[in-house]
Structures are given as C-alpha cells and as structure tokens.
Amino acid sequence: MKTKIAQKKKPASTKKKTVEKKKPVKKPAEPSESKTQKNLRTISLLRGMKDITPKDELYWRTAYHKAEEMANAYGFEFMETPALEEAVLFTRSLGKDTDVVDKEMYVFEDRDGTRVALRPEWTAGAVRAYINHGMQSLPQPVKVWNYGAIFRHDRPQAGRFRQFHQFGCETIGQRHPCLDAELILVAYNFLKDLGIHANVNINSIGNLEDRQNYTIELVGYLRSKRSYLCENCKKRINKNPLRVLDCKEESCAEVIQESPQIIEWLGEESKTYFMKVLECLDELGIPYILKSTLVRGLDYYCDTVFEFFEDGNEEKSQNALGGGGRYDMLVEQLGGQPTPAAGFALGLERVISILRAKEDNKNLLEKPWSKVFFAQLGDQANYKALKLIEEMRLQGVIVRHNLAKASLKGQMETADKLGATHTLILGQKEVHDGTIIIRDMDSGNQEIVDQNKLIAEIKKTIKTAKPRK
Ligand code: HAM
Q: DSSP 3-state assignment of 20?
C-alpha cells in the first residue's frame, strides 16, 4: 500500500532543493509466526480430537458400509442435518440441566450474533428437520438414519473424545412396542455383524407424570442418604436427581443399589407397553438385561430406554457402545404436532476400538487393491501415461502409478510393494512404436502389445489374478 508521504508532490514554486527528511514508515507488524521461518511451531491436534488416518481406513469404511447396509435393510433413509444449529434447539430438547448441555456443548456467538452450537447429538436436529420439511404429511413412521461427527466438550479419556462419530436411526411418527424392538434389533445386528457380542441393558422410565411421582420419592430417599453421596451427587439431588442413578462413584453405589425402582412407579399403560417391548425382544431372540437404574442422561426420553455394552465390558459408562430410547414429547416441544418417536445412536470410535483390538477381523472390508501398475520412462512416456491411465479408468481398469518418479527401478519397487500382479511399461521406444509392455510380476515374462489393444488385453490378463503376498 502506498503511504501519504510517498504520494505527496513537491510544490512547483520550490526552487531550493531541500532534502526532506522522510519519516520512517512504520510497517504493519508481521504475524509473529512468519518472523523467522525457523521458529515456526508445529500445530498440534486439539485436546480430545482425533485424526482418522489411512491406517484406520478399513475400520471406518467397514463401519460405514455396515451402517448403510443395516439402515437400508430395515427401511431407514439417509438424512443429514448441519453440524451447526441454533443452540436453543439442544437446550430445549436435551434439557438445560443435563451434563451434555450444561457442561459439554460447544456454544458460541456466530458473527451475526446468533447463539449457535456444534451438535452434541443428532436426534434434536433430525426432529427439527422433520418439522421444518413437513414430514408429518408423509406416510408414518418416517425412518431416517445418519452417520456423522458429534461434538461434546467432555473430559477426554479412553473412549471419550470431543469430536466423535455416531451411527444413528430415528423412527418418527408412531408409537408401537415393535418399533422400539426394531431399533434395538438394528443396533444389535450392526454390532453382531461386525463380530461384537453386545448386551442390551433396558429399562422403562414411564411417562412424564410417572417420572414426576418417582422423582419426588427419589429425592426424599436421596436426601435421607445425602451424607453417603459424592459431592457431585449432593448437588444433583436438587438439580437433576435421576442422574444420581448413573453415578459410577463407589461411595454412591450402595445408595443407588437400594434406591426406589422407577419401574414400580410406572402407570398401567407404560407398564404394559414395556412388557410388550420385552416380549418382542424375546420373540427376536435378543438377550437383554433389565436395569432398573438405567435412566439415560437426556431429558427428552420417556418409556423405553436402552444401552449397548460389549459383553463383559460394562463397568464404566464410557464403555457404552450406544444408547437410545423413546421420545414421544420432543416433536411437540420443538413446535411440531404431538408425534411419538424413538431412536438410537452408536458411538463409532468405541466400536472401532473393539474391532482394532480383535485378532481375527474377518468382517473387515478388503483393502482396495489394484492389480495393475503403470511405469513410465522419459518425458513423452510420462505425458502419454496419464492419458492411457485415464482411458483405462473409463473402461473400468484401475491402475496405480507414480508419474513423478523417473527411475524405472524405483517404479518397479513401488509396484511390488503395492502387490500389483502386472506392470505396464511405457518407454520412449514404445511411445514411438505405439506399443506397451505388459510384465507379469511373478514370472518376469513380458509381452509387447499394441496400445490400441491394451485395454482388452489387460482385462483378459488380470481376470483371474490374485493379490501377491
Ligand atoms: P448418547 O448415549 O449420548 O445418546 O450417545 C450415544 C453413544 O455415543 C454413546 O453410547 C457412546 O458410544 C457415544 N459417545 C457419547 N459421548 C461420547 C464421547 N465423548 N466420545 C466418544 N463417544 C461418545 C445420544 O446421543 C442420543 N441422541 C441417542 C438417541 C437417538 N436417542 C434417541 N435417538
């Protein structure tokens, strides 16, 4: 940018040459990082975040593939909502005294002053979309699934991240015990197909009135045991007493064990409904554990609630592989017509960490593998290679290559490392003759073919090729 000093013209009448002392022009400060190239700090991952690198590709692709297959098989349609929503969507849905909203939500003011939040779960967004897109006029129930990133400013530890991924399904628009059972079945089968033996913990928390009556009883009981409770639970008695039942502190265990059981406070309708859900699970042969202290940490739930744990790995809440339940009031709470609904979400980091620890992972997808490598030598071959590779791709032959590598030896080594069964070799001579060499990587035999016949020839050659060890 020009400064005023540089733009100033000398007055025409001035004869005497005066050397004007220029004021030093203050340059804008450089951002500190570019002061000296040597001192650039490396930028690390934020706490609680995780990169998914190619070494984990197969786990993630397998999980996505299985989620898609399951969702399709049970008639769920894919729906994506933004990662960023108005914060009030979550405070109103999940409840402002829940840990997720109170302590863990990423909330900030957008540049236009709107209070926004990174989604700490997907259900509220799905319900917002259901209302916004008038889905109540579609045949009910509307069954949607999602697979994506979720954000919670949780205390990072094993299995607990600040950005993680969920596979979730929601059935919105009908209330029926079979729908609850179907959701459990989808999640259970997803885990089973991945080779994970899961246990389903299940409970019913009844309707709002049942819960209010139960809460009065629970608060009375907890007050009488206050001195035995951990500091957190002492605060929870008045703020969110149901959360005490979820506490994993040793000091609280006995108090929780002897606490009044919510199931005894259910009204007739909720009790019958719950019995029918269990009957459906029996019919489907899904084993479950009745867990009277299971209440889930979000306010929108009613009636059926459930969680999934890997068999034998249930002692810590951060081991839950997933959870869900019925939320019949939520659509109305978010401004829609009264509409019953239920759903679940599975935490994929936890699922994948189990897969990673397994020795035999026969359920993993195969690594994408290309049978053919393209090696080129010299400038002309280099340019021609890219064109031939593109022609082959259009005909369904996927070719690996390294066009930036000049040495043939180096390229052959790469082909070997990738397990290619055949290498195509294009040098100056072949470019000139309009031919190309097909080399069998095991026998070392080479065949010269016309470039025009290459695709047909290579398709024939690799038809029965198996990956090399
Ligand atoms: P949620 O129990 O809060 O439920 O989360 C579901 C699963 O997400 C957990 O069981 C766990 O596997 C995973 N998860 C939660 N927090 C973390 C974390 N910080 N790091 C890694 N994984 C985590 C829900 O989100 C409900 N929206 C489920 C639902 C759908 N209910 C009805 N429909």
A: coil
Q: Choose which residue among 164, 317, 333 to substitute to test ligand 1 binding: the one with the highest number of ligand atoms within 8 A of its C-beta.
A: 164
User: Can you read off the two tokens belonging to residue 58?
Assistant: 């197969």
Cα separation of 403 and 101, whole Å?
Answer: 51
- Fold for 54-207+267-357, please state it: BirA Bifunctional Protein; domain 2 (3.30.930)
Query: Does the CB atom of residue 271 touch ligand 1 within 6 A?
Result: no
* 372-462 classified as CATH 3.10.270.10: no
Taking only the tens place, the pLDDT of each residue in 109-140 is: 999 999 999 999 999 999 999 999 999 999 99
Q: Are 445 and 421 in contact (CB under 8 A)?
A: no
Lateral strand order in the sheet of 84-86: 84-86, 115-118, 107-109
**Which helix (H) or strand (E) covers residue 331, if one does?**
helix 330-333
Instruction: Give the Cβ contact number of residue 206 at 10 Å.
Output: 23
Asked if residue 202 has its Cβ within 6 Å of ligand 1, the reply is no
Would you give the DSSP letter of residue 366? Answer: P
**Helix ranges restricted to H, 24-158:** 57-73, 87-94, 99, 123-132
**Residue range 185-230, pLDDT digits in tens:** 999 999 999 999 999 999 999 999 999 999 999 999 999 999 999 9
Query: Among residues 389, 375, 256, which one has the least CA distance to residue 317?
Result: 256
pLDDT, position 467: 67
